[in-house]
Amino acid sequence: xxxxQRSKKTILSFILPALIIYIGIVIIPxxxxxxxxxxxxxxxxxxxxxxLNNFINLFTKDAIFIKSMKNTFLxxxxxxxxxxxxxxxxxxxxxxxxxxxxxxxxxxxxxxxLSSVAIGLLWSFIYNPEFGIINRLLSxxxxxxxxxxxxxxxxxxxxxxxxxxxxxxxxxxMIIYLAAIENIPAxxxxxxxxxxxxxxxxxxxxxxxxxxxxxxIDMVLMATGSLRFFDLIYVMTNGGPNHAxxxxxxxxxxxxxxxxxxxxxxxxxxxxxxxxxxxxxxLNKIFQxxxxxx
Length: 294
Known about the structure:
Blueprint (H helix, E strand, L loop, with lengths): L1 H5 L1 H29 L2 E2 L7 E2 L3 H8 L2 H32 L6 H13 L2 H11 L6 H8 L16 H26 L3 H9 L4 H12 L1 H16 L3 H6 L11 H11 L3 H25 L8
Helix pairs in contact: 2-14, 4-8, 4-11, 5-8, 8-11, 11-14, 13-14
């Protein structure tokens, strides 16, 4: 076994197949996308080089793209602001030897394993203004004035979609934090209890500082996932009404596969890739810390 580990050819033989696949489906398409972003192309005509015109038009003439950027950052902000503290609180609440722990873990994680198409259809029915449970419930308790066309109103559509996204993924992040909390040595908690530390101080001075690196990693996953979010919005609103729920990923699809402006759509995707890299870099800088030794 040690001989195999020391042999570079053996190691390469194991890595090479996966590396070839990764290069073929990730690296090459990225470079192709960057290349096409400098052209005007509808897949039928020949490529027409336009330089940076696609990017200039995005930021100076395309009001829908600007709106999609605002919606994307709004989605990212509220995903971080809602899911991070909620997932941590849920993880703390069910950590330890509590009754029904497996049940709660399953219930909270279940939405994450469901198809986004199924969740989109489910919540479209829940938000339905005629027979949806939300409007029915509001009417039944005397709050009929608060009923809305949730997915057809420009003022409520993004909030409605963000609520569904948080509901779907908060259980996933809870599991990550739960694993981090349960990885904290019991000796530290026992020593704190002996010193008279109450539950609030336990959370503030022991649990949160020790899971800080995991919080940073999870926030990177959450932020980049929010920037690239597409499927649920496509199913529930298709970017409407009047592009009020349009995000960068859905707008990229709209320009590439509905308007057949592949060069322009490639420019949108390059901007999205750049945003993901920048946000990842900034969050890593914010949460940069030395490795904690227990």
